[in-house]
Amino acid sequence: MKIKKIILIVIGCICLGCGCVGIVLPILPTVPFFLVTLFCFARSSQKLHDWFVSRKMYKKHLESFVQRKGMLMKTKLTIIISVTALMGVGFFMMSRVPVGRIILSIVWICHIIYFLFIVKTLKTEDALRTDKEAAGKSA
Questions:
Q1: pTM
Q2: What residue intervals traverse the membrane (predicted)?
């Protein structure tokens, strides 16, 4: 069991690093890496799990997704715009690398499909009501 915990901690730390890089470089998907981090830390170390869920990066990028299974439209648009801008720069710079442009295009299309059609869009009032319910349960 100790080896399993060590492996999960290592995988969690690697995914945490990749998720943090994904915050700066939207080519890497932050949310899936943070979900794997959350899973690995929850299965291996209560201290690491508690530390991770108390961080601003978790609350900003993952908390609403984990608790409410969706994101506000504002959050989705922020992600889509930043991904599009960064990938647009990469696409422009790869004018002599058609394979790179194809790969970037496929990744961009997958991002758009994922955030527009797979991730549920929360209404602001739903998010506020859920936050109040969660605060009432923890009190």
A1: 0.56
A2: 7-27, 75-93, 99-119
